Amino acid sequence: MTKSGQLFILSAPSGAGKTTLLKKVMRDVERLAFSVSHTTRSPRPGETDGVDYHFVSVDEFEAMREQNLFLEWAEVHGNFYGTSRPAVAKQLEQGVDVILDIDVQGAAIITGDKSVHAVSVFVAPPSLAELERRLRGRGTDSEETIMVRLGNAAKEMSCADDYEYLVINDNLEVAATTLRAVLIAERSRGHRLPSGEPINLGALTK
Ligand SMILES: Nc1nc2c(ncn2[C@@H]2O[C@H](COP(=O)(O)OP(=O)(O)O)[C@@H](O)[C@H]2O)c(=O)[nH]1
Ligand SMILES: Nc1ncnc2c1ncn2[C@@H]1O[C@H](COP(=O)(O)OP(=O)(O)O)[C@@H](O)[C@H]1O
Fold this sequence. Notes:
The protein is an alpha/beta fold and 206 residues long. Helix content is 41%, strand content 20%. It contains eight helices and nine strands. It has helices spanning 18-28, 58-66, 85-93, 104-112, 128-138, 143-157, 172-187, 201-205, and strands at residues 7-11, 32-34, 38-39, 54-55, 70-76, 79-84, 97-101, 118-124, 165-168. The strands form two sheets. The protein has a five-stranded parallel β-sheet with strand order 2-7-1-8-9, sandwiched between helices. Helix 1 (18-28) crosses helix 7 and helix 5 (128-138) packs antiparallel against helix 6. The model has no long low-confidence stretch (mean pLDDT 92). The structure holds guanosine-5'-diphosphate (GDP) and adenosine-5'-diphosphate. Adenosine-5'-diphosphate binds at residues 12, 14-20, 134, 137-138, 169, 172. ATP binds at residues 12-19. It is found in: Cytoplasm. One of its GO terms (molecular function) is GMP kinase activity. Belongs to the guanylate kinase family.
């Protein structure tokens, strides 16, 4: 039987660089999948349906919600976002670790469910001033959208202590090394022997 994959939660205020960091780390960590969320927000230039998000209408989102197809969902910055329960379950069953890029509300839902084991990581910008520079520098959002995201940032930052790990995305290389280290360390926990068998110390010393 294949050993089930692990769930990782990554949250950050918008503009902290979570997407950039994730893309970098996912290039060189194998057996790791990104959970493609459903959202009612419009695609940004350069985003692809089914890759960055599944872009759906409010009606489609509500229909999925009514069928209990979301592991968690939340309204974030005025749009709906949700994680597909069957998609995540399938990847975990195949022994693939799954990263959920979700907001602080979604993270609280998952970590509050004691039947689900997830490792949580918060990505913080070095300062709120730098966060604003990055949001503006990204060049994908209207002034109104930027203001909504900045307005929510302080509250989101106050949730950082609820996470097991904190990664400060100041220098991208350093942040990527730190995130990789977290993933690798969590995979290496002693109780996660591939066979599921306890270690036979006697056999090791013969
Ligand atoms: N709860 C929840 N939050 C999500 C999900 N997908 C994305 N988000 C969060 O929604 C927020 C907005 O994401 P996005 O629209 O891509 O904007 P960005 O953060 O400015 O790049 C971020 O905090 C994401 O982590 C999801 O499936 N569930
Ligand atoms: N460590 C960093 N230093 C400087 N700029 C960064 C860093 N990480 C990301 N960025 C830039 O900040 C902007 C926001 O990054 P993005 O990954 O879209 O953030 P998020 O997914 O958290 O909303 C992008 O223009 C990105 O290139």
